[in-house]
Specification:
Largest sheet: 6 strands, antiparallel
CATH superfamily: Mu homology domain, subdomain B
Mean pLDDT: 85
Number of strands: 11
Shape: flat
CATH architecture: Sandwich
CATH class: Mainly Beta
Radius of gyration: 16 Å
Order of helices and strands: HEEEEEEEEEEE
Low-confidence stretches: 1-23
Number of helices: 1
Structural class: mainly beta
Helix content: under 10%
CATH topology: Immunoglobulin-like
Length: about 160
């Protein structure tokens, strides 16, 4: 089975998305990998060509600053595919970052713990399956360097 359309779309959208508040030249690249056990019992990652429901995936986003000056207030908003459920607690980087999510198509964002949705006239805590967008902000990417952001997802 070829790479599912939702994975291809996520890659394309991420590659075209420009950080929204950068003060230096930055670029974005994304790859989708799956964890696999090696013969030594360690975990390695291989590119995803096909994915099945229930399969865990890892998204890796590389934010690069190619200028000789720091990029400040680097922001990125990504739509999340409805065929995936991401683990909100898994969003991480080797530098401090602010992470917010949307459950209303990107109209509003909040930390996952504060995100609510309206359902049948009642308000409830958002679940990972409610998420529609991910927003990341990094205070600074040093001159001529890269920051990697990762998060875990499961194919629904």
């Amino acid at each position: 089975m070829p790479l599912p359309r939702f994975l291809t779309a996520a890659l394309t959208l991420a590659a075209l998305a420009a950080p929204s508040f950068a003060s230096a030249e930055t670029s974005v690249a994304m790859e989708v990998v799956r964890p696999v056990a090696t013969e030594t019992g360690e975990t390695a990652f291989e590119p995803v060509e096909t994915a099945l429901p229930g399969e865990p995936l890892v998204y890796r986003i590389a934010l690069s600053n190619t200028d000789p000056v720091p990029a400040t207030s680097v922001g990125l908003s990504l739509p999340l595919d409805g065929n995936l459920a991401i683990d909100p607690a898994s969003v991480s980087a080797e530098t401090p970052l602010t992470v917010r999510f949307s459950a209303d198509g990107g109209a509003s964002y909040a930390p996952f713990s504060e995100l609510t949705v309206e359902e049948n006239g009642e308000t409830r805590q958002a679940q990972p399956t409610d998420l529609t967008h991910l927003q990341i902000e990094i205070a600074e990417i040093a001159a001529e360097s890269q920051v990697a952001v990762t998060y875990d997802a499961v194919v629904r």
